[in-house]
Structure formats: C-alpha cells, structure tokens
Input
Amino acid sequence: MTGLLEKRLSANAKITLAKYKNRATKVTKALLRSKLSLTGIIILVVFSLVALLAPYLVPYPPDEIHYDDKGAVISLIPPNRDHLLGTTYMGRDVFSQLIDGARGTLLVAYLSGLAILLIGGNAGLIAGYCKGTIDTVLMRLVDTLYGIPDLPFILIIALFIGPSIWAVILVAVLVLWRTMARIIRSQTLSLAERPFIKAAKASGAGNIRIIYTHLAPNLASLMFSQLAIVIGWVIVLESSASFLGVGSTDIRTWGQMLQYVFVSGAIRSAWWWAVPPGMCIALLVMSVFFLSKGIENITNPELEGR
Output
C-alpha cells in the first residue's frame, strides 16, 4: 500500500513538473519572438553578466585613490584614456565603481523579487482558494500595509538595524508583496470555480495538490509578469533609499553612487559621475518593464499592440 502511494505521488510530481516545463518553454519562445521583451532580456543578461564578472572587468580597484605625477589626487577629472568615465571627488575611477555597483543593485533586485514572489504568490493562492477567515485575515493585512509609505518606513527600519542592503530588502519585501498577493488572489478566485478544479476536488485531490498542481501553473505567467514589475519598483526604491543615505553601506550600488555625487556637491559639474549610474538605473527599470509587457501580452493576447 505504501509503495503504491509513493508511486502515485511520484507520478503526480512528474506530471506537475512536465506542466511547468511545457508552460515555461512556450512562454520563453513567445518572449524571444517579441522585440520588446527580447530587448529587455538582452539588457538584463548584459547587466547580470557584468555583475557576475565585475572583479575581472574593473580596470582598477573601485576604492583605489589615484594620484598624478606630483602626488596630488586627480579629483573630478573628466573622461580620458586612463579613466574612461573620469574620477570622483576622492580620485576614484567612476567606470570601476559603475561595474562594481551592478552587483549590489542586482543583488537587491533579485533577492527582493524572489522573496516577494514566494510570499505574495503563496499568500494570493491560499487566500483565493481557501476563502473564509484565511482570506479575510490576509486581505486585511494587505490593506493595512497599503497605508505604510515606502521611504519613511525605510528610515524607521534603518534606525533599528542600521543602513544596509538588508534593510532595503526587508522593506521592499514587506511593502511590495501586497500587490502581488492581491492580484494573484483575484485570479485564483476566478480559477477556483472552473470545472477542472471541481473535477480535481471530486477525484479526491487535496488542497495543497490543487493549489500547486492545478492553480499555480495556470497563474505562472501572471506571477512572473508581476515579478518583473516588482523588480522595477525595488530598483527605484533602493536608488531612492541610497540617495537619502539610508541604503546600502556594506556593498556599492548605483543609487549609492548618486548619493555620493550629490553629497560632494559635484552633481552639477561632474556629469561623468552622475549620468552613468542614473542611465544604468533607467535602463534596468526599462528592461524589466519591457519584459513584463512581453509577459502581459502572452497572458492577455488582446492587449498586444496597445
């Protein structure tokens, strides 16, 4: 009896995995056919490779102070052959810091996005399927979190645990899982009334199996569409927090670079220090928007071209 049960569970797991794999293959092919989403994927891949290979790509150590022949710090020099993007107020190479900053920025974005997907996606699935008291409690919690402003919340968290990359990730997760949970819940409420869910219940399928075998695969495209949008918000949130001086202090990010150029008073004169990180942030946010738009067109084909 136990052996038969194990074989049945194994067969169900293989079927579920095959469903996810088949859907992921279809979505990937559709994304690669879309010029907009393909552009977003290319930008994300390039930035991710730069972040992974940062130690090998930087021409100088990011915190190294450079001096001229007379021993004076070469402060705020414009781009030249030795320093492709010039130097900072402290004589550090901007190009090296820009490459190094990709690691921190993408780390915040990807870790926060993954945590938000897990928390918000599961909360939405459980609330929409279980309904009743569980749904009411989760949605009231979501409503409460909508009243918490992002940046002041970061200031409060930073007072307790100090400015760090983890403070930004914690705030991003706490305030951004709510939107994903609400959207996934609304779609789950609709799917839960479909005939194939009722058939699964009639066949004796348990709640967990229905949620993760039947509901989750059908909502995967919507989840990843929301994930792309959330990552864009996380990037903006991290940049804003770093600009205010309560962001990452333990790892360099592009937002931190903007904060330093502003504090030094060189934001009006040293364009080579301010523009590159700002452009990288803009490109990264645009790339996840392009990707989310592509996924949305796959999920809702009638929206394509609008």
